Amino acid sequence: MTLSVAETIAQRKAEGHGTLVAYLPLGYPDLEQSILASIAVLNAGADVLELGVPYSDPVMDGTVIAKATQTALENGFKLHQVFPAIERITAATHKPVLVMTYWNPVVQYGVEAFATDLRSAGGSGLITPDLIPDEAGEWLEVSERLDLERVFLAAPSSSDERLHTSAELSRGFVYAVSTMGITGARDDVDSSAKKLVARIYEQGAPATCVGLGISTAQHVSDVVSFADGAIVGSALVRALTAGGVDAVAELTEGLASGTKRN
Question: Any idea what the Cα angle at residue 70 is, between residues 66 and 73, rounded to 5°?
């Protein structure tokens, strides 16, 4: 049985660990390799998969991820491929899969239809970077009814009121954007992350994971000292580009070594 993201975070916490969330885009370098890479990162120690949906206008994605998703689109990626991919990944790993998608593809597919197909495929829910809770009425209703988790983003620039809304309406965790701007591996985790996470907890969030700029086991260790989990994306995509499935699994194993809390 696959645990929910919230249950996974709670279980890892009880074991003395933070949660490692691994991001990979579906369809890169091709559909089959992306599925194999997704299975590999979960088997190598990632606790949750953030499966990215390629989109033609990825306003929050850094160079590495944007280039990868563009390649996936050029190779013929189609949105309906998300659901059988999730079925394969969850069947092979029994770990939760969150779909990271900009909102327009979901609207084009149909919110109800997308959520229903996601649920049927064994997906846990959605991370929606460009959908704010105030404008998420249909998604809130459908996800509540279908018991899907929903992850909203919070940034250092967010007001306390916005953080409170995100904390109240997120299911699974609140995604703390550690550095303003687009995604990408950085040498140091931004110091604003710790302050942002503290503010999110103050607004009542049961769990928070930090993303944007995390690329080493030390980064993961630093983040899980003050947050529930660390989200790694660009570093994994770079490893997949350079060395394929084996390389991304090896990096994940190293990153997972940073989840143990002292």
Answer: 140
Q: What are the tokens at 78?
A: 């189609």
Rounded to 10 deg, the angle between the 234-256 and 63-74 helix axes is 110
Question: What are 163's two structure tokens?
Answer: 């953080």
Q: Predicted confidence band at 1 (pLDDT cuts at 50, 70, 90)?
A: confident
Residue with tokens 């597919």: 109
Rounded Cα gap, residues 111 and 96, in angstroms: 21
Predicted TM-score (pTM) of this structure: 0.95
Does some domain include residue 262?
no
Alpha-carbon gap, residue 66 to 41, rounded angstroms: 20
Instruction: List the CATH number of the domain containing 34.
Output: 3.20.20.70
How confident is the model over 36-89, as pLDDT tens digits?
999 999 999 999 999 999 998 876 777 899 899 999 999 999 999 999 999 999
Kindly give, in sequence order, each residue whose CB lies less than 8 Å from that of residue 137, ignoring residues fewer than 6 positions away. Answer: none
Q: Which domain holds residue 175?
A: 5-212+225-256
How many C-beta atoms surround the C-beta of residue 180 within 10 A? 11
Whether residue 200 is contained in a domain is answered as yes
Containing 154, the helix (H) or strand (E) segment is strand 153-154
Question: Of 57, 48, 55, 95, which Cα lies nearest the Cα of 79?
Answer: 55
Q: What residues are labeled active site? A: 50, 61
Distance, in Å, from the CA atom of 21 to the CA atom of 50, rounded to the nearest integer, reads 7
